[in-house]
Amino acid sequence: MASAVIVAAGRGVRMCSPVAKQFLALGDMPVLARTLQVFAAHPQVADICLVVPEADFAFCRKSVLPLVENQKPIKLTAGGRKRQDSVQCGLASLDRPEKIVVIHDGVRPFVTAKLISGCIDMAAETGACIAGIPAAETLKRVDAGNVIAQTVNRDGIWLAQTPQAFDFRLIQKAFEKAAADGFLGTDDASLVERMGVGVRIIEGSRGNIKITTPADLEMAARLLENQSTAEAKP
Ligand SMILES: Nc1ccn([C@@H]2O[C@H](COP(=O)(O)OP(=O)(O)OP(=O)(O)O)[C@@H](O)[C@H]2O)c(=O)n1
Ligand SMILES: C[C@](O)(CO)[C@H](O)COP(=O)(O)O
């Protein structure tokens, strides 16, 4: 079994919306409710810590949690200034953490139960596993003037996603070390990698998008439509 930490305490600056993107409607419910539903229904997830801005606790209690058919405890925790701070808040607030913790962005609503299982199972076997996709485009390093400085060889290059799953004591140590060193990473695995621990990566899906910009939200609406059409087919 695993404990889940769902981080949704960001401000969503790149979405350029007065409403934080995790609370924007995707179909008939907020983005965050869709993400939560997948984890709440997952047989290997024992409990959930939902990390949101403290100012949004009431909204979550009124307009998000009731949409999540759920027999599992969902604990609300206030986030921090950076994503890493919010994950730390989530880890610290787990009352009785399971051996494995699975960390996921609240704005990745198209995560599948299969991908969650894959990350949990591989983390249980090896200590750490994240989702990702191999780079499919050509990668360019660009200078300040938007002039291409270098074409980066994409062999072996993957784009990290979430879920990111870890042995709880390992990720706890990684966060303690990062805090002591003043290290700030953009994902959780980077804190474990810097300890010299091998982190496995399993193939996610290009559909496991992180809703970041207005274009992503439009893409998400199309993905949802396609999903509903596919489910309606006999
Ligand atoms: N201080 C933060 C920053 C981010 N997140 C969460 O981490 C996930 C991925 O972060 P990102 O997509 O960057 O969200 P924001 O930080 O809100 O976006 P922006 O950088 O555009 O402000 C999101 O679910 C976001 O809510 C968080 O819990 N706490
Ligand atoms: C954790 C992550 O989703 C992996 O791709 C990504 O690093 C989050 O970055 P953000 O800048 O916090 O959106």
Automatic annotation (TrEMBL):
Annotated positions for site Positions MEP for the nucleophilic attack: R154, K210
Gene3D superfamilies: Spore Coat Polysaccharide Biosynthesis Protein SpsA, Chain A (3.90.550.10)
Organism superkingdom: Bacteria
Record InterPro entries: IspD, IspD/TarI, IspD/TarI_cytidylyltransf_bact, ISPD_synthase_CS, Nucleotide-diphossugar_trans
Presence of the UniProt keyword Nucleotidyltransferase in the record: yes
Alphabetized SUPFAM superfamilies for the sequence: Nucleotide-diphospho-sugar transferases
The reaction(s) this protein catalyses: 2-C-methyl-D-erythritol 4-phosphate + CTP + H(+) = 4-CDP-2-C-methyl-D-erythritol + diphosphate
Recorded coiled-coil stretches: none
Site (Transition state stabilizer): R14, K21
Involved pathway(s): Isoprenoid biosynthesis; isopentenyl diphosphate biosynthesis via DXP pathway; isopentenyl diphosphate from 1-deoxy-D-xylulose 5-phosphate: step 2/6
GO BP annotation list: isopentenyl diphosphate biosynthetic process, methylerythritol 4-phosphate pathway
E.C. number(s) listed in UniProt: 2.7.7.60
Claim: Transferase is one of the keywords in the record: yes
Annotated protein name in UniProt: 2-C-methyl-D-erythritol 4-phosphate cytidylyltransferase
Lineage per the UniProt record: Bacteria, Pseudomonadati, Thermodesulfobacteriota, Desulfobacteria, Desulfobacterales
Gene that encodes it: ispD
